[in-house]
Structure formats: C-alpha cells, structure tokens
Amino acid sequence: MNRVVKTLLPVIVVHGGASVIPIQFIKEKEQGAKLAALEGYKILKKGGSCIDAVVKAVSCLEDNPMFNAGRGSVLNEAGGVEMHALVMRGDTCGVGGVLCIQHARNPVQVAKIILDESPHCLLTGEAGLKMARKHNLPEESLKYFITDHAKSMFENYDKYKKAVDGIINSKQNELTDEHDTVGAVALDYHGNLACATSSGGFTMQKVGRVSDSPIVGSGGYADNESGKKNKLTGQKPGRMVQRV
Amino acid sequence: MNRVVKTLLPVIVVHGGASVIPIQFIKEKEQGAKLAALEGYKILKKGGSCIDAVVKAVSCLEDNPMFNAGRGSVLNEAGGVEMHALVMRGDTCGVGGVLCIQHARNPVQVAKIILDESPHCLLTGEAGLKMARKHNLPEESLKYFITDHAKSMFENYDKYKKAVDGIINSKQNELTDEHDTVGAVALDYHGNLACATSSGGFTMQKVGRVSDSPIVGSGGYADNESGKKNKLTGQKPGRMVQRV
What we know:
Family (chains A, B): Belongs to the Ntn-hydrolase family.
Site (Cleavage) (chains A, B): 180-181
Region (Disordered) (chains A, B): 218-244
Active site (chains A, B): 181 (nucleophile)
Protein name (chains A, B): Isoaspartyl peptidase/L-asparaginase
Oligomer: homodimer
Largest sheet of chain A: 6 strands, mixed
C-alpha cells in the first residue's frame, strides 16, 4: 500500500563509494556526488518517482569517470570491465539486478529494465544486455570505460592490494587508493522509497566474480512498509538501506 | 571456533525439492533422497566433514535424473540447461557459489572448489567451469542433462505453468508437476555444520536468469556459532537453513 504523506519533503541521499579518497580527487568526487544528488532531486521535486530519481542519480555517477561504476570502473585480472547494478522499489519490493555486464553505458538503467519487464529479478550480463538492446540503451566499447586512474591501479596492483589489505586490517594510514560501489536512496512525495547501486567491483578481481552489489539484501534493500508501526498513525516508517 | 561435542551423533538431512510429486515418481524420488542421505552419512560416520557429506549427498541427487539438479535439470526457454549451486561451511562461514553453469556434471562440486580456492564467493558459470577444469571435474554434453521428463515439461509448458501458478496461488488441486532445488544440511562429529544446494531453475526460465539457490542467505546458510548461548555450557547451538 502506498502511503501518501503530503507533508513529507522528498529526500535523496547519494554516495560515491566507501574508502579513503586520495586528496587530489576529493573536490571532483564531491562535485560529482552533489551533481548526481541534484539531478535525482530535480525529478523528486517535480513529483517524479523515487525509482526514477535513484536511477538518474546513479546514472550520473556511472557517467562520471571519477567513480567506480560505469565509466571509471576498475579493471579485472584480464584488463576488462564487468559491472553490476541493482534497483529496488519499496512499494512492491520489486527488484532488478544485473551482474557482470559489459558494454552497457549505464548498468543501473539495465537493472531498471529488468525490474520493469523481466519475470526474473537477477540476470547475467549477457541476458541483461539482450534486454537493454530492445530499449536501445547506449553501449560503449571497452575503451570508453577505462580511465587512466583505473589503468594505473591495474598496473600498480601490488600497491593497490596493500591499500585493500589496509582497509581489511583497518590500518587507515596504509590507505592510498579508493574503490567500491556507488549508490542512492530516495523518498518521494508519494511516500515511496527506492534504492539503486552500481559497481565495477575491485581491481584485479577474477573474470566472472559476482559482486554483492546487484544482490537484493546485500547491495541494497527498500521497503515502504518495514519497521515498527507508528502508534498514532498506524503507519510503518519504511526502510531503505544501501551498502557502502 | 570449532566445538568438539563428542556425544553428538552426526546428522544429515536431504531434500529433493518442494512441490507436489506426481504419484508415479514418489517411489523413485524417495529412494533417491534416501540413497543421497546414506552416501552423505557414510562420510559422517567415518568421522568425515559435514562439508564433504553435503557435497556427496547433493552430488548423488545431481547424478539422479529424478531431480531438478545436474542430470534431470529442467530446460530454459532456449531448450538449454543452466544450473546453480552453493556450499557453505559453518565453522568459517565460508561460501562457494556458482550460477548459470553449463556442462559441469556436478555443479555442487564446482561450488566446493570455489569455496576452497577462489578469493571470491560467487562466480558465473564460465568462471566456475574454468576452475573445475583445473581439477578435471567431469563435464557432459547437453544431451546428458536432458531427461524425457524435462523435455516433456518444456514441450507442455502451458500445463506446467498452470502447475507453477497453482503453487503460487496455493491451489493444491491444480498441481500436476514438480520442480525446484535440492539440498542437504549436515552436522558432523566435530560439531561443524554445512549446507549445500543445487538447482536447474524452472522450466522456460529466461537464459541467464540467476536462481536464488547459489546465493548465501537465500539458497542456504550455515553458521556453527549463531543462535542463543546455552546458559550452562556457554556454547551456541549453531544454525543451518536450507531453502526448499
């Protein structure tokens, strides 16, 4: 059941990945995240849906080479790019996810098509691309996705690995590089919630490694009706979570 | 921490899929499930690990054309077979999963190799097959997997669909056919838990549809240390769950 809560202001929250950001990238990353949030917010402000808002915001992050999703994705052990994305809507708890997709400029838009049209909630990259082609979603060659920064992380993997180990061992001073998923969560005027996630995985991952990002409950979760009932209104607050 | 509970008897529980079984298959299915449980139990009785036991039991079900896993898997919309498997060990909570794999005679054994050797916990079919080949795991042509029964369900999809709709709508009297995942859970002499799952998905599924069977927490879960502490011993009972 949709909750029409007219007094609610729409909200969107965007993130560009959880890690220590090299100082030279902080400004551009901040700007990129702000732009993505604003683009999503424009949709919400016009009364648009939270689903469209999170897809728009994550598409912005995917288009921005500063983030590890879409263009800017890190390289796997073969020097290729395999991407993962998820969209979940809180009104129906419907999910669309795609894993190990190549060439799609915006994996999150492929996930949205899977959410809208597939009888299944999670598809492999090839199956996702097949659906995307029916909708003429833009495709790019491998070259488009590879940034100098991703190439440098690939070529300097030992140093990068030290950074990842640093995260695992919580030795913050060893961190020298960034990685991880991007995502957005939103609440619209209609009281609906949605989340979206997109990731290029991590440098030197095996070909065919499936990220947790496109998996419901791992990469993200949105449910209008979860949580404890409000004793006065009888409404549940809803919940949306996003892995960072 | 492994719990050595010498007074414990090892246990294995096996299932061959949750649905109404056509009367003509009941005996063979029962025998198949018993055989699988006994094969797994033999390992446990000798002091072997719960992981080896569940892999053995599920391999038996995969080899048995009566079940929708390995040989006997149902056909997708293209008349092909894509299989999914998961193994999880409760001592480390380590997981190995493979999705949309073709040709591997025993997808659950591929999942076990991923558990043991991959730095990742979930791989696509092609990546899983690459690892399986290094271990000379047996492969088969598509013909091996396709049974007359799976072919008949594919050719009579409308009738089969009615059966699936029947399950969804809980109209038991409309059920005429079986489907679904197989699996096993086990507890060994060392007090360790494990689970394993294998599935051919469902008839006429889209190519590239990812089942929930190979996904940790969806297809199965095993954890030696979960649950409430025993007030006398301080031990936690452990938990293993298996989707059926």
